[in-house]
Amino acid sequence: MIRAGAIGHVLGLFLLVLAATMIVPIAWGMAVREPAPPLWQAFAITAAAGGGLALLCPRPTSEISRREGLMLVVLTWAAVSLFGGLPFFLSPWFASFTDAFFESASGFTTTGATVLDNVEVLSSPVQFWRHFTHWLGGMGIVLLGVAVLPLV
Fold first, then answer.
1. Which pLDDT score is estimated for 141?
2. Within its chain, how far is the Cα of 25 from the centroid?
3. How far, in Å, CA of 108 to CA of 118, rounded?
4. What is the mean pLDDT of the chain?
5. Which side of the chain, N or C, has fewer Cβ within a 10 Å radius?
6. To 10 degrees, what angle do helices 97-108 and 124-143 make?
7. pTM of the model as a whole
8. Distance of CA 61 to CAs 2, 41, 46, Å?
9. What DSSP designation does 118 have?
C-alpha cells in the first residue's frame, strides 16, 4: 500500500530544498547588480508549494517502502524539473513552458541540451541558474555513485 501523504510530505521537503538552491543565483544577481525577478517569483512559488505539501501531508510514521521510494523518485524528478523550469519560463527568452521544462530537465540530468540558439542572451542570474542545474544534477550522480550504489 502506497501512503500518498508520506510521499507528499517528503516531496514537499525536496521542493523546499530546491527553493533554497534558488537563493544562490538570486544572491549572484544581487552581487552583480542585475535584477532576477524570474528567480524571485520561482523561489516564492516553489517554496509555497513545498511548504504546503510538507505541512498538509502527514509526516511518515515508519520507513518508506520500496514501492513508495520508487514512486517518490519518479515524482521528485518530475517535480524538480517542473519547478526548476519556472525561472526559465518566467524569463522572456523561452517561448513555452515545454521549452523551459526541457531546459530544466536537461540540466538536472546533466545532458546539457538546450532549445536556445544562443544561451548568452540569458540574464546573468538566469544563466547562473542554468549552470547550477547542471552542477546539482552532477552532484546527484556523484551522490548516487558514492552513497547508493554500494548498498545494491
1. 67
2. 13
3. 20
4. 90
5. C
6. 40
7. 0.90
8. 13, 34, 25
9. -
